[in-house]
Amino acid sequence: MLLITSGEYYAGQSLALQLLQQPEFQGKVRVSCRDTSRCENLRKLGAELVQIDHQNQQQLEKIVHGIQYIVLAVDPEDDCVSSTENIVRAAAQAQVKNVIILSQNGVEGSQQKRLRELLEIEQRCQKHLGNSNWVIL
């Protein structure tokens, strides 16, 4: 099972749409959304939607349970750093072994708030994931 985060935003939504069109991913894609009503198109294509509360660690652990791969598409919300870190903590606790972090080029040394947030997310993910297989795209 594959988990894609931030399904109601561009990166998560686009990736989920592409994967759900491939027969080998049917029934194997879970998408987390803050508001699942914004992701109903993904459910119609076969995704399992889960409403996420990034501050509820017990719920996050349930969402990542049984997941082999997580694609962390970072949402544009103000709490994106702590939200993403909470998901990563849950993934580490559940021993998810494969994590793909979607980021952007040029985060190092940038003065732009969004890019600084992405750099912080990358650093926190590396700290928590340790021996897992992870990659930053």
TrEMBL record:
It comes from the Eukaryota. Pfam families: NAD_binding_10. Residues 12-124 form the NAD(P)-binding domain. SUPFAM superfamilies: NAD(P)-binding Rossmann-fold domains. This is NAD(P)-binding domain-containing protein.
